[in-house]
Amino acid sequence: MAKYNRILLKLSGESLMGNQGHGIDVERLNEYATQIKEASEMGVQIAIVIGGGNIFRGLSGAGKGFDRVKGDQMGMCATVINSLALSSALGALGIKSHVMTAIRMEPIGEFYNKWKAIEYLQRGEVVICSAGTGNPYFTTDTGSSLRGIELETDVMLKGTRVDGIYTADPEKDPTATKFDDITYDEIYHRGLKVMDLTATTMCKENHLPIYVFNMDIVGNLKRVLQGDPIGTLVHN
């Protein structure tokens, strides 16, 4: 039995680069799709939000002279590209999925609608929510929080390249220690960068727990769903 019935899986666009340094690493993409298939076969209802940092990040684009609004819109389009790639990889494994977009772009994706998305989830089909919130100045972390709350998920599973939340960046500070669980308030007080402040506040106010784990290790998604303590739980 899975620990959760319905999840919002947040995937990093940057992790899709694999070892390439840019774009989409097909091997990493297929590893993600395989893990999602395993979760689906456990009977878990799966909604997904994937970032676009492997293609374009609006905020860094603004720092290079792009208009911030146009940069964020480019970032939204990047998430759609990644979502289509993931949908294709899932389809190759026999898993039906739907790419839903926060801005109209039929026939590339279906315009996001909560009730339609829940209908798909209840049918056991994967819903990939793309284009963030459809608005500039909001990250895909905020888009994940919004969709997780809207779709009444039990938890947001934040798949990263580290195995949880640490007192400092473990890639930079070898003395950093890992939390098994942590409250939202402690994240604020310690100034930890789990997600942006808007996203974290939305989860706190709407009682949506976040579980941070390493998605880049094949099999970890299934382990999380089985209740193995391999990451960090964020809660009120």
Secondary structure blueprint with pairings:
Elements: E1 6-11, H1 26-41, E2 45-50, H2 58-63, H3 68-92, E3 97-101, E4 110-111, H4 114-122, E5 126-130, H5 140-150, E6 155-160, E7 165-166, E8 178-179, E9 181-183, H6 184-190, H7 197-205, E10 210-214, H8 220-225, E11 232-235
Parallel strand pairs: 1-2, 1-6, 2-5, 3-4, 3-5, 6-10, 9-11
Antiparallel strand pairs: 7-8, 10-11
Helix pairs in contact: 1-3, 5-7
Count of DSSP strands: 11
Largest sheet: 9 strands, mixed
- Count of spatially separate domains: 1
* CATH topology description: Carbamate kinase
Overall structural class, as computed from helix and strand content, comes to alpha/beta
Explain the overall architecture.
The chain is globular. It has helices at residues 26-41, 58-63, 68-92, 114-122, 140-150, 184-190, 197-205, 220-225, and strands at residues 6-11, 45-50, 97-101, 110-111, 126-130, 155-160, 165-166, 178-179, 181-183, 210-214, 232-235. It is built from 8 helices and 11 strands. Strands 4-3-5-2-1-6-10-11-9 form a 9-stranded mixed beta sheet, sandwiched between helices. A two-stranded antiparallel sheet has the order 7-8. With 236 residues, it is α/β, with parallel strands linked by helices. The two termini are 25 Å apart. The protein has a single domain (6-235), classed as Acetylglutamate kinase-like (Carbamate kinase), CATH 3.40.1160. 44% of the residues are buried.
